[in-house]
Design brief:
mainly beta; Neuraminidase; eight-stranded mixed β-sheet; six-stranded mixed β-sheet; signal; Secreted protein
Length: about 280
Amino acid sequence: MKRHLRTLVCLSGALALGAGTASAAGDPHWARTGTAYTDTLGGGQGLASRADGSLLYRGLATIPLDLRIKGWNHVGDPDVARGHTFDAYQGPDTATSKMFAVTTPAGKRFEYVHRLDPGEKLNNSFATVSPDGQWLVSGEWGEQSRLQVFPAPLLNPATPRAGGELAEAWQITLDKPVRDIQGCDFVTDTRLVCASNDATGTLFPEIRPLLQVDLPRKVDGRPITGTVRSLFALEQRSVCPGTFEAEGVDYDANSGTLRTQMIPPGVCAVATAVHSYQQVTD
């Protein structure tokens, strides 16, 4: 599960690990184009781009009081689709369900609760909606060989119109295991990018890799298998020594901008780095 934040002062970076993909000559790859910072308490758990290009951030401080009272004490990496905001919530370690909150363009929020299936972990690390608006993809913590798929609340006509229960529809089976996925976002109908906080180097050679999941067809309500590969190590840059934490990821289809988040160590953790990338061809 994502750790809860340290309260503390950030300095800009000097030590770096990873700044873009290695690729064969002529192949497109992601090149870093800039770095910004956001308040970790208010935006260190995830981000999503709106249609107008502005960014929505999520952090522990953004959890509404009424949801905290209900026990939803953690928010994951969000998504925005068709003007609707999709948030992934989880509760304490004893929780038997997870919740997706959907806020309409008019500002009305609906809660969709998913009761955990046998063997399902309580973690609700992220929410991302397929480009056609019909399917919501999410994921658990630890080592996993799947991503979960639900009908997208409100946008998919199979879901209740005003909140309620949300059952899993099917899964994306991964051809190789992944670990500690903090966020995923669709780049195309058949490709996702996912931020992993895995620092072991045992599943992929990169530390805290950005992963790519390719699908043989767009998600359509039937089981499907995704092919996973590591693109590059997420940027880890700070004057503070210690352990970094990868967080959310977002792809803005309008601008072609990929953004990733990294919380720096120690006293620098008060500000989360947001790194931007564009695809280029050598």
